[in-house]
Specification:
20% of the residues are buried. The longest helix is centred in the middle third of the chain and has 37 residues. Helices cover 69% and strands 0% of the residues.
């Protein structure tokens, strides 16, 4: 199960990361049209905002899989792997899982409400907003299942990222 969840978030992360190129191309095109051709696109800014939002939110599970989330590890940085493992298990149970479950439930409600309303942006070009809001629900599920996988790795002692850290180490 851990391998399947890791694989899913790895695949999603790699596919979604390709949007960085699309995002950059649209920005370059929009800047060129605005400042060189003096003909700004009415859709460029809204579209890049939405793509960036999708990009950012969808990479949460991927970031957790690679231990790339910001952690406040003032207490755990110098701990030996055994005690540190138990502190991290407690952190997942007390903080991460409740937050992720609430985030998942509310994200789906938020996205489904937007879909039911056919929500669109306002302005010259009205782009649909509900795909981005539905993506929040998908991203929340990906984050939740990756958190469960990380918790299972800790419980089963299948972690290699728990070695004591030196000041200034970034993992």
């Amino acid at each position: 199960m851990i391998s399947v969840i890791d694989w899913i978030n790895e695949a999603v992360g790699r596919v979604v990361s390709l949007l960085a190129g699309v995002f950059a191309a649209i920005i370059i095109y929009d800047v060129f049209m605005r400042y060189v051709m003096n003909a700004p696109t009415p859709w460029g800014f809204d579209l890049t905002k939405m793509i960036y939002g999708f990009y950012f939110i969808m990479l949460g599970g991927y970031a957790l899989r690679h231990q790339a989330h910001v952690k406040v590890d003032l207490l755990t940085a110098a701990m030996n792997p055994g005690p540190r493992r138990w502190v991290e298990i407690a952190g997942y149970i007390i903080f991460f899982l409740p937050f992720s479950i609430v985030f998942t439930l509310y994200s789906w409600q938020f996205g489904l409400r937007s879909l039911a309303q056919g929500e669109k942006t306002y302005g010259a070009v009205q782009l649909p907003v509900y795909p981005l809001k539905l993506a929040m629900g998908v991203a929340a599920v990906l984050l939740l299942i990756q958190g469960i996988a990380e918790l299972m790795k800790l419980v089963l002692n299948r972690t290699d990222h728990l070695a004591p850290m030196e000041p200034g180490d970034v993992h």
